[in-house]
Amino acid sequence: MALRRDWVYENNGGTCVAIAGSDYCVIAADTRLSVGYSIYTREFSKICNLADKCVLATSGFQGDMKALQKNLAARHLIYQHQHNKQMSCPAMAQLLSNTLYYKRFFPYYTFNILGGLDSDGKGCVFTYDAVGSYERVGYSAQGTGAGLIIPVLDNQLKSPSPLLLPAKDAVTPLSEAEAVDLVKDVFASATERDIYTGDKVEIVVINASGIRQELMELRKD
Amino acid sequence: MVSSLLPRRPNSRMMELHLTGFESCPLFPGGVVADHGENPLAAASFQLPACSDFDGFQKDAIQMMKPAKGTTTLAFVFKEGVIVASDSRATMGGYISSQSVKKIVEINPHMLGTIAGGAADCQFWHRNLGIKCRLHELANKRRISVTGASKLLANILYSYKGMGLSVGTMIAGWDEKGPGLYYVDNEGGRLKGTRFSVGSGSPYAYGVLDSGYQFDMSVEEAAELARRAIYHATFHDGASGGVASVYHVGPQGWKKLSGDDVGELHYKYYPVIPTPTEQEMADTSAA
Fold first, then answer.
1. Do A129 and B164 touch (CB under 8 A)?
2. Do the Cβ atoms of A111 and A150 come closer than 8 Å?
3. What is the pLDDT of residue B136?
4. Are A107 and B61 in contact (CB under 8 A)?
5. Is Protease a UniProt keyword of this protein (chain B) (predicted)?
6. What is the Cα–Cα distance from A209 to B36, expressed in whole angstroms?
7. pLDDT digits (tens, 9 = 90+) for B71-125
8. A115 closest CA partner among A190, A192, A174, A48
9. Is B206 near chain A, with CB under 8 Å?
10. pLDDT digits (tens, 9 = 90+) for A161-214
């Protein structure tokens, strides 16, 4: 594939995770950018604050990530000018899905997770594939370390499917502090076994009082 | 992307790409050249890679990104309307990316569509179909027929024929002519029928569905037949699983009848009866 003269993609590695709670949302991503076996930088942020209650984390090809973030931020600005309010997280979720699908034949090589609060103040996480298929979930991981992290999150957070009828409540019982600790633990574990994950993890927490950010050191090897 | 490098294709289908559903609020109603990055609200069109080998590029890109695919859906017409059922598993290559995908989409209160094949392709084009159906209602002051809706979708998919879309969908609804069911796929095929199953688990679902089908079933019997067919498909097909959802479309519209985890359905249909030895062991350890 890379031998094609017109191959324009590369995988910069990295992992993103998000967990939705009853009144908060935690979004986290590591800060390593790699190409092949080399680390280009240890301080690269994969997280973008799109709106007050809406944060995007992206892994994959960072060139496409930057283009996508700029595109969405611009669209959000236009929306604010036209509607005099911020975009809600579910609205941004559909916008992202359409933006990804518009490049269906020349895809953005990005694996996205959108996290934030919906209009009821409840945490929401939307997970995407590269061409825009999306779903609202209680938690998600994307990127090179996702295969290592998702089983742990399934074990700790798995809740009844929203498709069941009669419906069963699907809210994560974890508190905000417990969720942040869980995120730190899974990143530490993924760093052990995934060469593309490490250096630092940037953790963003959205709740009713706003957005707060935390950085935690990870193994640098 | 420089448009002069677009690959020349022998047929003119490229010129007929359906760009409906792309226009958002036009900031510049004079019409703008869709130059990427210049005006994000310009009437968008699908960007294409500037390469000489379009098909090879698509093949490699899809293989690299492995977009989510979905797998067993079925629908059939009977005396009381249409039953539509599906599993809820999405796979990316060999990885299960989700066990809770909605594969039955509600196009409008009287019509359902199913997703099989590429999840993004199906989600996007079904939403586009919903928009077109609503516009039809507003323009013609009556609801669109199932025939019309399926034709709209089939025409769109035909115009993208050969470009790598993966869509195997069924449109089910109840219109003035009664219950209607159509199968539409990315080849541009459109078939009217009374029984369809689509996806990698469809052979298994057909086996159960065909042997138990009768036109004169009640709604409960039909739903149970659909549920069993989906369960058996998930049992044998690795790419199907999760929750078996069953919907019914009647003259008043669609209604979701059930959503059952297929693991639990397994033990409901095949309960574990302990052998006498096992029963004795369980009794003695309890005692």
1. no
2. no
3. 95
4. yes
5. yes
6. 37
7. 899 999 999 999 999 999 998 888 888 898 999 999 889 999 999 999 899 999 9
8. A48
9. no
10. 888 888 776 666 899 999 999 999 999 999 999 999 999 999 999 999 999 999
A82–B contact, CB cutoff 8 A: yes
What number of H helices and E strands is found in chain B? 7, 14
Residue A2 pLDDT: 56
B31: confidence class by pLDDT, cuts 50, 70, 90 = very low
- Write out pLDDT tens, residues A31-61: 999 999 999 999 999 999 999 999 999 999 9
Contact (CB, 8 A) for B72 and B202: yes
Of A105, A109, A135, the CB nearest to B65: A109
The amino acid present at B157, given as its one-letter code, is L
- Residue with token string 């798995």: A158
Contact check, Cβ <8 Å, A74/B1: no
B68, pLDDT greater than 90: no
Tell me: the pLDDT tens digits for B232-253? 999 999 999 999 999 999 999 9
Measured in angstroms, the CA of B191 and the nearest CA of chain A are apart by 26
In sign, the C-alpha dihedral spanning B101, B98, A108, A214 is positive
Q: Could you tell me how many residues make up chain B?
A: 287
Interface pTM (ipTM) of the complex?
A: 0.91
CB atoms under 10 Å from CB of B119, counted, come to 28
The set of long-range contacts for A145-149, using a CB threshold of 8 Å and a minimum separation of 24, is A145/A14, A145/A15, A145/A30, A145/A187, A145/A190, A145/A191, A145/A193, A145/A194, A145/A196, A145/A197, A146/A15, A146/A111, A147/B95, A148/A189, A148/A190, A148/A193, A148/A194, A149/A15, A149/A17, A149/A186, A149/A187, A149/A189, A149/A190
Please, what is the end-to-end C-alpha distance for chain B in angstroms? 77
Counting other chains too, the contacts that A73-80 makes at CB distance below 8 Å and 24 or more residues apart are A73/A48, A74/B40, A75/A99, A75/B40, A76/A50, A76/A51, A78/B27, A78/B40, A78/B41
Among this protein's residues, is B71 annotated catalytic? Answer: yes
Token digits of residue B68: 């989510």
Please list, residue by residue across A187-210, b when 16 or more beta carbons sit within 10 angstroms of its beta carbon and e when fewer do.
Answer: bbebbeebebbbbbbbbbbbbeee
pTM across the whole model: 0.86
